[in-house]
């Protein structure tokens, strides 16, 4: 039976490919934003900037603009109001960028730490203190980033909304209903799992060191 001689495959290949793709996207995005050929996270050639505010108000069933007629006993409710501007100023562009940048930064940081992990494991070996340390770092990046990214993005969305309305905005940090938390919070569990696996690797490294000392 054929056995794969590379224990880091396919993780190593995918990490290198995704990291190269992210670098390419960043370079092309920055170039497009500076030249005005495209828009990236609110900068460059941007048609409009929008932010959503949730709403739980009921809708009149007789509203002629509704796409469907509701059956008897069915209540319709609005999900969000969308505020948009076609002429964003610098502050609005910055706040709009910050509604997306933390998640992208988390993804890029995870790729960088993962790249260091697979490169170090290929150079030093899997059952080493260095591999355990990098696994632990990756776990903490996922845990901390998954918690802070939605908070930062929701806070930026609140500030962006404040630039588009004349009345004061409340202190809620969930302008979009907290939708970003649904996709990022499971990463906390992955991070906790990586912390546990780092301990497994550390135990293996200690056993290997003891065995080498015995021999």
Provide an overview of this structure.
By secondary structure, the protein is mainly α. It has one domain. It has a two-stranded antiparallel ribbon. Strands 3-4 form a two-stranded antiparallel sheet. The chain is elongated, with a radius of gyration of 24 Å. 18% of the residues are buried. The mean pLDDT is 80.
> Percent of residues in beta strands?
5-15%
Shape: elongated
Low-confidence stretches: none
Strand tally: 4
User: What Rg, in angstroms, do the CA atoms define?
Assistant: 24 Å
**Integer average pLDDT:** 80
Give the distance, in angstroms, between the N- and C-terminal Cα atoms.
Answer: 31 Å
How many structural units, i.e. domains? 1
Largest sheet: 2 strands, antiparallel
Name the structural class. Answer: mainly alpha
By DSSP (H or I, 4+ residues per run), the number of helices equals 6
Strand line-up of the largest beta sheet: 1-2
Percent helix: 55-70%
User: What sequence of helices (H) and strands (E) makes up the elements?
Assistant: HEEEEHHHHH
Summary tags:
single chain, two-stranded antiparallel ribbon, 6 helices
How are the SSEs placed, and which strands pair?
Layout: H1 11-35, E1 39-40, E2 43-44, E3 49-54, E4 80-85, H2 90-98, H3 101-124, H4 129-162, H5 179-184, H6 186-214
Antiparallel strand pairs: 1-2, 3-4
Short overview:
With 215 residues, the protein is mainly α.
């Amino acid at each position: 039976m054929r056995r794969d001689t590379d224990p880091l495959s396919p993780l190593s290949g995918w990490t290198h490919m995704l990291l190269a793709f992210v670098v390419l996207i960043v370079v092309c995005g920055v170039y497009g934003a500076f030249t005005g050929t495209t828009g990236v996270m609110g900068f460059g050639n941007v048609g409009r900037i929008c932010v959503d505010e949730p709403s739980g108000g009921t809708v009149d069933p007789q509203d002629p603009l509704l796409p469907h007629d509701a059956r008897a006993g069915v209540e319709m409710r609005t999900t969000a109001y969308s505020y948009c501007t076609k002429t964003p100023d610098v502050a609005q562009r910055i706040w709009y960028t910050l509604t997306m940048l933390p998640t992208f930064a988390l993804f890029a940081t995870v790729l960088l730490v993962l790249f260091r992990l697979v490169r170090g494991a290929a150079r030093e070996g899997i059952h080493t203190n260095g591999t355990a340390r990098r696994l632990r770092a990756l776990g903490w990046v996922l845990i901390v980033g998954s918690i802070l990214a939605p908070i930062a993005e929701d806070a930026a969305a609140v500030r962006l909304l404040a630039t588009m309305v004349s009345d004061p905005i409340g202190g809620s940090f969930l302008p979009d209903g907290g939708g970003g938390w649904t996709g990022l919070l499971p990463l906390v569990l992955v991070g906790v799992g990586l912390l546990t696996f780092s301990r497994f690797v550390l135990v293996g490294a200690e056993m290997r060191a003891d065995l080498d000392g015995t021999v």
